[in-house]
Design brief:
With 116 residues, the protein is mainly β. Helices cover 3% and strands 49% of the residues.
Length: 116
């Protein structure tokens, strides 16, 4: 039973844009916060952005000014608009609850590759 499905990744050049989508189960989506995370090659998974049920947002320094997190409660879907992409944004992007715990289950993620 897949409860988190990420999509929208791809390969772009530096300065390009992508819009990622996260389709979540109703149970997961009704949590207080949802978040985007990413894992670059050889690195641990890191926090990217979060959004509350009411739409309050917060961003890691890495994406401030370039990324925008949003959600559509009617569709149980969360989005991450990424502009001005840099090679250091290259990673597999995941969605999940915020905050995380040791028992979180993860989807397959969606891969973002930014070339120079």
């Amino acid at each position: 039973q897949v409860q988190l499905v990420e999509s929208g990744g791809g390969s772009v050049q530096t300065g390009g844009s992508l819009r990622l989508s996260c389709a979540a189960s109703g149970t997961i989506f009704r949590s207080s916060f949802m978040g985007w995370y990413r894992q670059a090659p050889g690195e641990q998974r890191e926090f990217v952005a979060r959004i509350s049920r009411g739409g309050a947002t917060s961003y890691a320094d890495s994406g401030k000014g370039r990324f925008t997190i949003s959600r559509d409660n009617a569709k149980n879907t969360m989005y991450l608009q990424m502009n001005s992409l840099k090679p250091e944004d290259t990673a597999v992007y995941y969605c999940n609850l915020w905050p995380l715990s040791s028992s979180n289950d993860w989807g397959q993620g969606t891969r973002v590759t930014v070339s120079s």
